[in-house]
Structure of AAA domain-containing protein:
Amino acid sequence: MPSRHGSDTLSEATLSKVQTAIPALETEGANELLARDLPPVRMVVGDIIPAGLLLLAGDPKAGKSLLMQHLALCIALGAPAWGSLPVEAGDMLYLTNEGGQRSFKARLEAMLTDAQPPERRRPLFLAGRAGTPARTSKSRPGYPGG
């Protein structure tokens, strides 16, 4: 299939740029790996959630967003998760593509019954689609902001 430029092949110059932009695959043998001294995995929530990127998947309305907002708040406050799991305090960026500010605020108010919101030194930021209206859940009574 011809490209939008009318040719179905890459020029030598373009091909050379692509090849230099893609790093060579580096391999490591089992002996080298076994000889390496690797640092321990840094855990953020108890011994179940490591630092770094976390992908959470599940059925609709299973409580994934509520779970992650609770964990984000616990990390921002340095408070135990679910009342018992030790948490490493830190800054949080909560990215969402659902709900919006009203939903986030309603859940935050429900979770902060006795606690103060995180101070600016340990921020909890919300990022999502601008102007997204709050969604409601008719199937989950008592689910704050859901």
